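Here is my example:
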Amino acid sequence: MWLATFYLCIPVGYALGYIYGGVVGVALGWRAAFLIEALAMLPLVAVCFVVPPVDIKGTHDGAQMLSSQGAMHARNSLSAVRALADLTLFNIGFLCLSASTF
């Protein structure tokens, strides 16, 4: 079911992306299209830090699971992400690249 949903979202996302990009790009400009998209993703990012991870049977590799208790889970998730130096450097670089286009 998860795999089917994932592979269904790819072509639907492409189709809706072309429509959204065309409409918003013509009306407000291409930068506004990306800005609106970024703002629309912020609630989804917040949900990803609060919702406990899905434990798919047979895929647990023995790594320590983060707590699934609301704020504690979010705090642990943020700490785990911040601890990844490569990811942090990548995000800073991507932020600089994105900011330079405006």
About this structure: The CA atoms of residues 14 and 20 lie 10 Å apart.
